[in-house]
Amino acid sequence: MMKTSLCNSSLSTGFRLIALDIDGTVLDSRKTVPEGVIRAAAQAARMGKTLVFCSGRSVSEMEEVHFLLPMIRYAVFSSGAGIYDYAKRQAFELRGLSRKQTCAILAVAQRREIMPHLSFAGRDVIQESHLQNLEHYHMGVYRPMYEKVMTRVEDIFAYGASCRETPLKLNLYHADPGEREKTRRELCGLDLEKVDSEVSSLECSASGVDKGQGLLRLCRRLGIPAEGCIAVGDGENDLPMLRAAGMGIAMGNASERVRAAADRVVPDLDHGGCALAIRLLMGEEPQEDAFGPETGF
Questions:
Q1: pTM across the whole model
Q2: Tens of pLDDT along the chain (297 residues)?
Q3: What angle do CA 63, 162, 76 make, to 5 degrees?
Q4: Domains of the chain by start residue, with CATH
Q5: CA distance 48 to 147
């Protein structure tokens, strides 16, 4: 799938921006930022390239990652529901769920064995009892981060019903990942974007909100055409940005569907895939056989 001629031209002059998913892309399987990613990002920034996060995470959930990659000024966060400027510490272009949608989604979760996570522009909210039982919902790997950044409430269903602030996204984590499709069917009457994420999550966002649209809105603000962008990701919620960018790059750990939608495939999260993608932004084309047939090079 070659979307533009830039894919065959000089990468160092053709591409100006790279949009990076975080989980499964920037972070390795230990949820740390590899040193190779830090070095490549610093070098790209020195060359005048623009690096942005494009993540399902909220701003607070990205804070520790940004601390290690301070050269990144902008983030498309909550799967495209908002854009964040780290220099100004300001969120803008917010697109949230309606109160009716929020209440309807929470009602479905309350009837079932589902852990909701409300994501707002300035905070994230989770029920205390769910936080103590993250492993049951296949989210134990995120415990250190959740315990630092989450606002904890006794009853998230009562909280969501009374809260007047607009959530940007509502994640539904299932004890049984096979139950996601049932949840999707129960929510079919609502005008929502519903995307699988992580092992057990169904991300619920306002209609028209996705990483691709968020990236395009940021590009318009920065005066960078979409064909001048590279997008890198591994999950189903990354598909819109891979398709929107001039070059879509799938991590080697991506699903077959994501890999099929990408222009290129790089090694997985534990074998330098993200660092390699950033080096492509700088025009460092690898050797034809450097990574073998699985990488797409």
A1: 0.90
A2: 445 433 444 444 589 999 999 999 999 999 999 999 999 999 999 999 999 999 999 999 999 999 999 999 999 999 999 999 999 999 999 999 999 999 999 999 999 999 999 999 989 999 999 999 999 999 999 999 999 999 999 999 999 999 989 999 999 999 999 999 999 999 999 999 999 999 999 999 999 999 999 999 999 999 999 999 999 999 999 999 999 999 999 999 999 999 999 999 999 999 999 999 999 999 987 654 344 334 443
A3: 25
A4: 5-94+210-295 (3.40.50.1000), 99-206 (3.30.1240.10)
A5: 36
Q: How many residues does the chain have?
A: 297
